[in-house]
Each structure stands twice: as C-alpha cells, then as structure tokens.
Amino acid sequence: MATATETTRGFTGVRCVHCGDVDTLAVKLDDVSTLVCRECSEDVTVDELLAVVAKLQRLVKWLNTAPAIED
Ligand SMILES: [Zn+2]
Fold this sequence. Notes:
Elements: E1 25-28, E2 31-37, E3 43-45, H1 46-65
This protein binds zinc ion (ZN).
C-alpha cells in the first residue's frame, strides 16, 4: 500500500475508485481534471468520482428513510 508523502496536501482519506487504496490519488499535471492513482496507476476522472458520490447519496437517503427495526 502506498503512503502519503510529506508533499501531499488536502483531500486526505479519499479512496481510489479502482483499487480502493487510500491517499494514493495525485493530480495529473498535464490534465488537472483527472487524477492518477499512485498504487494501481489507473486514471480517476471527475465522472467516476461523481458516480461514487451518487451511490453514497442514495445510501444516505435510504438510511435516513429506512424504518427502524423493532425488537
Ligand atoms: Zn488505485
């Protein structure tokens, strides 16, 4: 597992959408709209991040509306 370096700033605790490793995403200097994972070398696009956010929003919505389980 890769670890954050001393030069890593902000956005800690974010997982790669491909390998799931934490704190391995870096901005591509030639295309700042895309990240690259330092662990699996896959590109991570804004659309892929938005898809993860959408899944989490659906989960939170379900959790907030799910009926309580009675004993
Ligand atoms: Zn990765």
